[in-house]
Each structure stands twice: as structure tokens, then as C-alpha cells.
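Encode chain A's predicted structure.
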Amino acid sequence: MKDLQISNGAVSGPVRVWLRAEGFAVLALSVLLYWFSGSSWWLFFALFLAPDLAMLAYLINPKIGADSYNVVHTYLLPLGLAALAVILRETGTLMYVYIWMAHIGLDRFLGYGLKYSAAFRMTHLGDLGPSPGKLVKAVGQ
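Encoded structure for chain A:
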């Protein structure tokens, strides 16, 4: 049972490694599909961080912030948009799906997971480290 390492609601050990590898695979495939689409790389880079605007909801409160972040950082909405684009034959929309999926894939690969409302740094892939206030205190000591 050495592989069973569960603490504070976050995955760890080999499961965390697999989830991060999965994120890299999504990132790589999304970038490849974007490249094949022939779309503008300026558009890609301009919109790549757009899903992170959902973090602004943390200004309201941590629960709304976490919920907002999680809705935008799961594969459900971009895959739903992809399905709708294919059904409606609006394939020009797919380039936005590729950008969105690449963003989520990179986040997962880097270890940024879905957020718990307890704290922004608490994710399903683990604790991101000290909160900014604690970091400032630690550096200033």
C-alpha cells in the first residue's frame, strides 16, 4: 500500500504524476491541433491566459472564486463547445477550444489543480505553497 498517499484532499504519489502527465498530453495535442488549424499564433498567445480572468471572482469571496476558477478550468466547457462547433459545422470556433484546452493542460502539467474554497493555494493536485502573506513575512524576517 506504499502508493496510497492521501492527505488534505489532494492526490499525491504516482496518481499525481499521471495527472500531470495527462495535462502535458492535453497541452501537446491542443498546440498540435492549433498548429494544424493554421490560425494566428498572435491570437493564441493573446488568449492563452484568458481563462485565468476567472480568478477575479476571488475578489468577491473564496467560495465564488474557487467555483468560478473550477468551472473555467475543467475540460467540460471547452469539450462542450467543441461538440457544439462540430454539430453546427462552425469549425472556426475550434481554435478557441484548442487555446482553452492548452491552457488547462499547461496548468495541470505545472501542478495547478482545481481549487478548494479553503484557500486559493489548495488544489486537487496539492498545496501550491505558502500564501503570499506568509511568504512576505518569511522573506522579511
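The chain has one domain: 13-121+130-140.
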